[in-house]
Write a structure and sequence with these properties.
Shape: elongated
Radius of gyration: 32 Å
Largest sheet: 8 strands, mixed
Structural class: alpha/beta
Strand order of the largest sheet: 12-22-21-14-15-16-17-13
Helix content: 40-55%
Bound molecules: phosphoenolpyruvate, magnesium ion
Length: 879
């Protein structure tokens, strides 16, 4: 038996999405439920994968199976494919297992040729309609299948509109459409191509084109941005056409069963009378809100409301539905889980539980942790005076400022050069995806709340304003006019995705209000998770923010950041430049009270919760000026005839900077090595920690410091460093009459530390994985060099499936971590182990940390909610 590659809608179910793609599986499910779905069939994703495996050949037997399915379709519709007397027309649409909105191709009205178009005109007694369908088909086919440039087609259509003095395509007469069709066919011929008149050939070419559309540049960019594997392939859905363009009792639209921006109950969507297919999604005409359908087509509207309720109930989630009304009869063309903003995701999850449609566990599984970061994003300060130059539709919340750019390529280029940009377009198409990825936000002059830009931006959590028709954009000239104001490429603008405002210049931002839904859902997450969640924070303000976001402690307080403050740096430099220990001692004595104040602040902000304070880690040259700049400065001073003493002082500094230079600072004199070579530095820091503790205890507070030693690779390093710290601890606490023990632990961020974790655990009271350095040293990659020079190439060549500095490399770095946990806990049962590298806020890495039994993850304050939810999901998944 040859493999089955084609399934009629009557043969599938929602569970078959891997085989039939999301669209195919849901069309089958709706058919099974007896809903009004035009009949059709699906070519499986297996066929698409075979197509690629064989280097672009349709799998054997596929066309026979398609032929048989077409016969079935002819039988149920009573029409004939290519039969001028009663032509069967079909749509050919892509549909992968994971949703990739608008990324792949669609062809409508397939089956039309000169003869069937005439037949359709006779049958419907509507020549205008038949020719409109034919010209749309030629246009889509020429674009998607033949790859012709549509610019010339648009020109022909524009000429026809001008000749007839009409504004919209649907006002064109039959006579003029006849001319348009002839013009299109001439264009195809002029390009040296022949427009196929045989419907079976049209279908074969269209199926291949949809397969190919899986691998267009825009689809690849989208998959990379969403981490969708490249080898899934797409299914192809072939469905009998229904027509939304037969007159004023027809139309087409998109409806969400609830508001995808806020999650509010009640349907939400858009509708166009007398229009076909992609007109709504493509943003070519700005449609009317769905409520307008209640007046235009009241019967179909009521039926649509019923079907929305039924589908939402059936799937137990908010649905995004495409429909067409043909001559007053409603048809469903697609349903899928609706993409939503983070705020809506929270509200929907919580509402569905309170409506008893799902359990809290399901609600937790349903929210994407990465999306949570966006609810914490800031909005425009309501008190601020802003220069609003236009208003559009608030399509995706959050505020963004950046340089205006008018082309996706320009957005990408400017972003690569380090600029923040706002992509401004009349509308976006899937070909603009790289520009959207690169931009901070998107602004369009056309389109509604469900146009391409709106859907993609919401999904990516980027601010977006659409349908801002006051903007007159001239992308070619690199400018846009808005009344009197002209914005040129590179001008700073801001958009407010919450209100639709377009603002000249940058805007002051304020912190978000956390909603009740957020609190409820994260409350469930906290109850469900096993991992603790801490934050990386170096200032009391950050610590307070982290605490507000739910952090249960500070997992990493990087003390070097405290040394960088403008009032500290000169003293730090004095300490580094000192000739001897006595000189260093003098500078350190001045740093001590400042550092003690820092620790008091942070311990007080986290009162009652643990704060892991890491002793100084970076190489000392990071605190000194750059040698080249210094050398230029000296030349300049000489040139200007400055006093010799001044020049000599800078020269001495340069000498010291040069003396401290290292070939590989990342592997040089840093971390505990620094503390062992200059023990006074760590002694000062330890004294500051313990003195801060004493001060807070005296004030009746409950400080919970933990001292952490960086970059330990050997037991001996830890032993000497720790002994020195314990000596200071005893000294400070004894003098103050305080009975306390502050845990002293270590980072595990070198492979050797993981390999000898048992030896290290004998002395360390806790471990914290520094996976930034552990990834660098395990791979032998310097992070900055790798990311600047070759990481993207490695990802393109699929040498790596993800950037190991963002998502933990489980097979290598992860194996070392597991070994470290096992060895460490063998030597010290119950050893507390956490992670404080960047990976501590990455959901996939958090899942791994849960599986290897870590006690907590620590991440930046804004990712704390992400980590709380990801930790709950890991527990629900693995137990
Ligand atoms: C680490 O290496 O993972 C770490 C947290 O330390 P830093 O990033 O400060 O080197
Ligand atoms: Mg480190």
């Amino acid at each position: 038996m040859p493999e089955r590659l084609v399934y009629a809608f009557t043969d599938g179910t929602a569970q078959m999405r891997e085989l039939l793609g999301g669209k195919g599986a849901n069309l089958a499910e709706m058919t099974r439920l007896g809903l009004p779905v035009p009949p059709g069939f699906t070519i499986t994703t297996v066929a698409c994968r075979d197509y690629y495996r064989s280097g672009g050949k349709l799998p054997q037997g596929l066309l026979d199976q398609v032929g048989a399915a077409l016969q079935g379709l002819e039988a149920v519709t009573g029409k004939g494919f290519g039969d001028p007397a009663n032509p069967l027309l079909v749509s050919v649409r892509s549909g992968a297992a994971v949703s990739m909105p608008g990324m792949m191709d669609t062809i409508l009205n397939l089956g039309l040729n000169d003869a069937t178009a005439e037949g359709l005109a006779r049958l419907t007694q509507d020549r205008r309609f038949a020719l409109d369908c034919y010209r749309r088909f030629i246009q889509m086919f020429s674009d998607v299948v033949m790859g012709l440039d549509l610019g010339r087609f648009e020109g022909i259509l524009a000429k026809a509109r001008a000749a007839e003095g009409v504004a919209d395509d649907h006002q064109l007469s039959a006579g003029s459409l006849q001319g348009v069709v002839a013009g299109y066919l001439r264009e195809v011929a002029a390009a040296g191509r022949k427009f196929p008149q045989d419907p079976l050939e049209q279908l074969r070419l269209a199926v291949e084109a949809v397969f190919r559309s899986w691998n267009t540049e825009r689809a690849k960019v989208y998959r990379r941005s969403q981490r969708i594997p490249d080898d899934l392939g797409t299914a192809v859905n072939i469905q009998a056409m229904v027509f939304g363009n037969t007159g004023s009792d027809s139309g087409t639209g998109v409806v969400f069963t609830r508001d995808p921006s806020t999650g509010r109950p009640g349907i939400y969507g858009e509708f166009l009378v007398n229009a076909q297919g992609e007109d709504v999604v493509a943003g070519i005409r700005t449609p009317m809100p769905i409520a307008g359908m209640a007046e235009a087509l009241p019967g179909s509207y009521l039926r649509l409301l019923d079907l929305c309720e039924l589908l939402e109930e059936h799937y137990g989630d908010m649905q995004d539905i495409e429909f067409t009304v043909e001559g007053g009869q409603l048809f469903l063309l697609q349903t899928r889980t609706g993409k939503r903003t983070a705020a809506a995701a929270l509200r929907l999850a919580v509402d569905f539980v309170s409506e008893r449609r799902i359990e809290p566990e399901q609600a937790l599984r349903r929210v994407d942790p990465a999306q949570l970061e966006t609810v914490l994003h800031r909005g425009i300060d309501p008190q601020a005076k802003v220069n609003v130059v236009a208003r559009g539709l608030p399509a995706s919340p959050g505020a963004a400022s950046g340089l205006a750019v008018f082309e996706a390529d320009a957005a990408e280029a400017r972003a690569a050069a380090g600029y923040k940009v706002i992509l401004v377009r009349p509308e976006t198409t899937p070909d603009d995806i790289h520009g959207i990825v690169a931009a901070q936000g998107v602004l369009t002059s056309r389109g509604g709340m469900t146009c391409h830009a709106a859907i993609v931006a919401r999904h990516m959590g980027k601010p977006c304003v659409v349908g801002c028709d006051a903007l007159v954009i001239d992308a070619g000239a690199g400018s846009c006019a808005c009344g009197e104001v002209v914005v040129r490429e590179g001008d700073l603008i801001s958009i407010d995705g919450a209100t639709g405002r377009v603002i000249l210049g940058a805007v002051p931002l304020v912190e978000p209000e956390l909603s009740e839904d957020y609190r409820v859902l994260l409350g469930w997450a906290d109850a469900a998770r096993g991992l603790g969640v801490r934050a990386n924070a170096d200032t009391p303000a950050d610590a307070l923010k982290a605490r507000q976001f739910g952090a249960e402690g500070i997992g990493l307080c990087r003390t070097e950041h405290m040394f960088m403050a403008p009032d500290r740096l000169p003293v730090v430099q004095e300490m580094i430049l000192a000739e001897d220990a006595a000189g260093r001692g003098k500078a350190l004595a001045r740093l001590l009270p400042m550092q003690r104040g820092d620790f008091e602040g942070i311990l007080e902000a986290m009162d009652g919760l643990p704060v892991t304070i890491r002793l100084l880690d970076p190489p000392l040259h990071e605190f000194l000026p750059n040698a080249e700049e210094l050398s230029l400065e000296i030349q300049e001073l000489r040139h200007r005839g400055r006093p010799a003493a001044e020049v000599a002082q800078r020269e001495a500094l340069l000498k010291r900077v040069r003396a401290l230079a290292e070939f590989n600072p990342m592997l040089g004199l840093r971390g505990c090595r620094l503390g062992l070579v200059y023990p006074e530095i760590y002694a000062m820091q330890a004294r500051a920690v313990f003195a801060a503790t004493v001060n807070l205890l005296k004030r009746g507070r409950d400080p919970q410091p933990e001292v952490m030693i960086p970059l330990v690779g050997m037991r001996t390093e830890l032993e000497q460093t720790r002994d020195a710290i314990l000596t200071v601890m005893r000294d400070v606490f004894d003098k103050a009459g305080v009975e306390r023990h502050v845990p002293v632990g270590t980072m595990i961020e070198l492979p050797r530390a993981a390999l000898v974790a048992d030896e290290i655990a004998e002395l360390a009271e806790f471990f914290s994985y520094g996976t930034n350095d552990l990834t660098q040293t395990t791979f032998g990659f310097s992070r900055d060099d790798a990311e600047a020079k070759f990481m993207h190439r490695y990802l393109d060549l699929k040498l790596l499936s993800a950037n190991p500095f963002a998502t933990l490399d489980e097979r290598g770095v992860g194996r070392l971590m597991l070994m470290g946990v096992e060895l460490g806990r063998k030597a010290r049962p119950g050893l507390k182990v956490g992670i404080c590298g960047e990976h501590g806020g990455d959901p996939a890495s958090i899942d791994f940390c849960h599986r290897i039994g870590l006690d907590y993850v620590s991440c930046s304050p804004y990712r704390v909610p992400v980590a709380r939810l990801a930790a709950a999901q890991a527990k629900l998944k693995h137990g």
